[in-house]
Amino acid sequence: xxxxxxxxxxxxxxxxxxxxxxxxxxxxxxxxxxxxxxxxxxxxxxxxxxxxxxxxxxxxxxxxxxxxxxxxxxxxxxxxxxxxxxxxxxxxxxxxxxxxxxxxxxxxxxxxxxxxxxxxxxxxxxxxxxxxxxxxxxxxxxxxxxxxxxxxxxxxxxxxxxxxxxxxxxxxxxxxxxxxxxxxxxxxxxxxxxxxxxxxxxxxxxxxxxxxxxxxxxxxxxxxxxxxxxxxxxxxxxxxxxxxxxxxxxxxxxxxxxxxxxxxxxxxxxxxxxxxxxxxxxxxxxxxxxxxxxxxxxxxxxxxxxxxxx
Amino acid sequence: xxxxxxxxxxxxxxxxxxxxxxxxxxxxxxxxxxxxxxxxxxxxxxxxxxxxxxxxxxxxxxxxxxxxxxxxxxxxxxxxxxxxxxxxxxxxxxxxxxxxxxxxxxxxxxxxxxxxxxxxxxxxxxxxxxxxxxxxxxxxxxxxxxxxxxxxxxxxxxxxxxxxxxxxxxxxxxxxxxxxxxxxxxxxxxxxxxxxxxxxxxxxxxxxxxxxxxxxxxxxxxxxxxxxxxxxxxxxxxxxxxxxxxxxxxxxxxxxxxxxxxxxxxxxxxxxxxxxxxxxxxxxxxxxxxxxxxxxxxxxxxxxxxxxxxxxxxxxxxxxxxxxxxxxxxxxxxxxxxxxxxxxxxxxxxxxxxxxxxxxxxxxxxxxxxxxxxxxxxxxxxxxxxxxxxxxxxxxxxxxxxxxxxxx
Lengths: 310, 408
Fold this sequence. Notes:
Order of helices and strands of chain B: HHEHEHEHEHHEEHHEHEHEEHHHHHEH
Distance between the termini of chain A: 38 Å
Low-confidence stretches of chain A: 1-6
Shape of chain A: flat
Helix content of chain B: 40-55%
Largest sheet of chain A: 2 strands, antiparallel
Radius of gyration of chain B: 28 Å
Radius of gyration of chain A: 25 Å
Shape of chain B: globular
Distance between the termini of chain B: 68 Å
Strand content of chain A: under 5%
Order of helices and strands of chain A: HHEEHHHHHHHHHHHH
Number of strands of chain A: 2
Structural class of chain A: mainly alpha
Mean pLDDT of chain A: 87
Strand content of chain B: 15-25%
Number of strands of chain B: 11
Oligomer: heterodimer
Low-confidence stretches of chain B: none
Number of helices of chain A: 14
């Protein structure tokens, strides 16, 4: 006991308010934060700035691109005289993202609820593994398999036509529903896992208390369980919406001629036409629009405390 | 509550500008300015500042080069003969010449591969390959115009002069084969599913027929798509003008209402799945689909004609083993070796005499008798070379005309 005494902090001393003093006093947390900060700087801030910088360049792949503060590119792409309807592609991407998010909540919440409250404890890990199992296969291959299964002469439609549930001209691929379904399928686990975590953390006594206060099952769910999992739903929405709004893969593999999205436009501008400034401007706009939407959402529906999100 | 002097309130609520804050602000401002200056100095290099300016005496260059006994060969996946994990044609080459070949199937697509090698070539560095294979189009034109590929020494390619098919000699994108010899060619025509299609397909105009609504596949490659539009409107792509391009785009937009999608290589799956009943198609894919049992699918040379494209072997600048590369090109252009490769690859053989070799020696009449591999004179007559872009502005104009067909 006496040996420990010198290292124990003196309880009476007031914590220093000056940042430098605090760092000197206890450097460990700040050093640990350094790794995270470096990560954010290298993989987030620098790409963000360089993306913005590239969007302000002018030139072409042959002569190269030079930085010229060309803000006009945004007007050319999104202004009234734009030759390509990028607003439409952006709107479509956001629409698909929103719809896919709604589908994942509707499908994922009951799944998470079942695993958290109804499944026997020894099955929980196995069920969670099943949720994540599809991640073992590349999502491009998975999406392509859907394209095969849902094709006009594929197994699904052949059977449906065979039992006269759908007409001869019915098809799935190339429709909005196919794209939304593909996005929701690929991102389902991103919704299930955060909700499951939030459900797991609920103290069962709160549910009992709700019952004791004459809350029927629906009331208990809507007034106790659902609000307590708001953070999980919020995290799930962030993950699914951001991922699916800009996804080029599902629209190109499952979509048709009227499902072209901003993600595909960015990919085509970058890889096919090598118009780096256009690609960078499109992705900057996409990022800003997503940021504004999520910020507004967080202000309206989000939690009071950011720590609730994690 | 006693009234407070407003100055005190201000002092309490507002931060005072200390000298330190001012200094910090100044440093931040300077930093921002420095960053802006850095940004202004940065850019992405284009391909123009290439090696074109360098005047090379190719005769002297080739005279000074020696055989090294090694060859680095970059090609596309599944594009050479294979036998239990080995490549017989390359083994025969090693046996005959002593040159060991490092064969890499690294080229997945023209534009990204070009984007990968262009910076190295611009910096006059070796890209690590002595032979690359790329399709005629904007990238090959860039490679040639920028001086990124060597001029070939045709005195060391006697077999090319002797055996090469007429359709690979003196192509419009590389006059006199100065920089390239063809590895394989292919037709882009139409293919349709005999079982599902409501009628026989004979012409591009069939794509407009409402009977095919929602079951027409087109390619998402602007060059291929534009080529089809030009042929459909009765224009030879190689002689076309921007006005022709606009009319072709109008035709393609008209066809859009029937189109189910604009596809990459996956068009062949769509055709086999039955998602599309008629599709723009490459001859080699259709040959292989038929060989694998998809007998309902038939290749059609449209009445208006079809496009022919070529995958070209080229020697990039700074290649370490150029003489060995020439030896392989010469070795390939024989009925025997071209036949062995062709019997596996099934696109269009650049050596017509390989037909006899495949029939007699390899005893594979499915390949040797196929007009998709050894085209008939009639098919050749209805084949059209693609447009050759003169400069980037033309290429950009082409893209700006045909992009809206796909993007809407």
